[in-house]
Write a structure and sequence with these properties.
mainly alpha; cell membrane; about 80% helix; transmembrane helix; transport; about 190 residues; membrane; ion transport
Length: about 190
């Protein structure tokens, strides 16, 4: 597999994490944006790199079992988190409460989001097992691309959030739910 192909795969795999990172940026205060950007880049980058490695190691033996449930897991996790964001945004509150709080983006939350958005990477890793792919190079490239794009996304989300405030939080919740629906529909209509 060519370097260009692996770069394109890395960009494609990182798009869900990119969208979630925009959401994190929307809900982050100015004081916390660097911390959240780094957390986002690290969590998503590491998981987008590790999942193909895990898939590659598992190979074809377990692929039929993983493919049967991966889309449901991603859909449920993203919908629950997105739904929670929507409910919190629609409840309202004063403007100070809606300026963002890094406590919403705990390590546990990032872990759940990173797993949910990297399940596709597991399937890609399974396909790597059957192709002539240097797995170490592939996972480093995928992780690095995701890391950089997620950091950029948090800053982009912060700009969007500053402009639109509560509407941006509603948009963020909707984005997470739509990513979950997209993953589910892609797998159901293969």
């Amino acid at each position: 597999m060519s370097l260009i192909s692996i770069i394109l795969i890395g960009i494609g795999l990182s798009m869900d994490a990119f969208a979630v990172s925009i959401t994190a940026g929307i809900n982050t205060s100015n004081n916390e944006k660097r911390k959240i950007a780094l957390k986002s880049g690290l969590f998503f980058g590491i998981f987008q790199g590790l999942m193909p490695l895990l898939g590659w190691a598992m190979g074809i033996k377990f692929s039929e079992y993983i493919e049967k449930v991966d889309h449901w897991i991603a859909f449920i996790l993203l919908s629950v988190i997105g739904g929670k964001m929507l409910i919190e945004a629609l409840r309202g509150g004063d403007e100070e409460e809606n300026t963002g709080d890094s406590r919403d983006y705990t390590n546990k939350r990032f872990l759940i989001l990173a797993i949910a958005t990297s399940i596709d990477a597991l399937a890609v890793g399974i396909s790597f097992a059957f192709l002539n792919v240097n797995i170490l190079s592939a996972i480093i490239i995928i992780a690095a691309i995701t890391f950089v794009l997620c950091i950029v996304a948090v800053y982009l989300g912060k700009i969007i959030g500053d402009i639109f405030r509560t509407r941006a939080e509603v948009l963020g919740g909707i984005i997470l739910i739509l990513i979950g629906v997209k993953i589910l529909l892609e797998h159901l209509f293969k």
